[in-house]
Amino acid sequence: MKIVDARVIVTCPGRNFVTLKVTTDEGLTGLGDATLNGREQAVVGYLAEHVAPLLIGLDPHRIEDTWQYLYRGAYWRRGPVTMAAIAAVDVALWDVKAKAAGLPLYQLLGGASRERIRAYGHADGRDVPELLDAVRARLDQGYRAVRIQTGVPGLKAVYGVHDTTADGSAVPHQQARPLVEDWDTDAYLRHLPGVFEAVRAEFGPELPLLHDAHHRLTPIQAARLGRDLEPYRPFWLEDCTPAENQEALRLVRRHTTTPLAVGEVFNTVHDYQTLITEQLIDYVRSAVTHFGGVTPLRKLSDFAAQHQIKTAIHGPEDISPVGTAAALHLDLAVHNFGIQEYAGHSPLAGEVFPHAYTFADGHLHPGDAPGLGVELDEALAAAHPYRPAYLPVNRLRDGTVHDW
Ligand code: KDG
Ligand code: MG
Hints:
Largest sheet: 10 strands, mixed
Distance between the termini: 45 Å
CATH topology of the largest domain: TIM Barrel
Order of helices and strands: EEEHHHHEHEEHEHEHEHEHEHEHEEHEE
Shape: globular
Number of domains: 2
Bound molecules: 2-keto-3-deoxygluconate, magnesium ion
Helix content: 25-40%
Strand content: 15-25%
CATH superfamily of the largest domain: Enolase-like C-terminal domain
């Protein structure tokens, strides 16, 4: 079998998604997600100009060799743009291989290790009463685990507290310049334990509660927060410190037993070396889409497993249904699965990407269609073209730029 066509398709069914579609001489097609939120066109250029021409004539079954060819062959390694482009190729080739075998992808990854995949959803509110309503709404949708984020008194716009559309999905920031959010770490550290206390008081001790600090704390601040949250038994504290500094987690770890989750902005296993070998975290959070695909994420899972660390693949709205499906096949197959983030997509995104995966009773399943189980309605995609959008930026009260 040979690849005869490789095309990049950008669509905005409510938010931008970048998809690679490969076609073989046997008429099989494969899809890969290359969406890099707020920097989509950089990946489009990388894929269309530098990668797609190299794929023509290759045997799509040679996934490992193609991965190494694109990773080592470029000389310039790593980084989100490069790794999103390689991920799209990797996932598209896995899709082709599994379709050629007539099997859902998880069967090629070793088969199912479980019946279903526990998911967590997002609940947020500008204040505690709004958050409690949002948690209730997620429980009504069937979720059995919830990430809780709230506004902080005195701050106008805080990470994770969304404006929502009529269907409840988050409004993407489609404007010429990034929205500016504001931040005050002391106010946040004072506020958050009370938020956990209120949610526990309302929903009891069993509901798994997660929280994302989105890289904003120093190690000692993160240590304090982890300790202050311990009475409420969080499922995890995510991205407590800026991701570049792996050593920072040593200090956090010394002070708290709150489980730690890290990795949505990581692109390769090298970003995890210290974190995994020194067992400084409990969950690896990388996305198939930003980590070079199914091939390296499988290797990461196995490396993490040797250190009793579980997987928790990144699943925000800005990973397309193609990237979501790829995650679900891995989730079902790997032994050390922990939990899957599932923010869901707008109904229109679901129509642009018809898919076999299902969500019911708080759990996901990738379905049993051959391949990934996701298609792309190209006519509908074309009817919703790319719209420039940025992620927000973050400033302290005195105007200093802070981590977003
Ligand atoms: O594009 C950025 C989002 O994917 C990120 O902010 C979401 O932190 C996130 C999460 O945990 O889902
Ligand atoms: Mg996060």
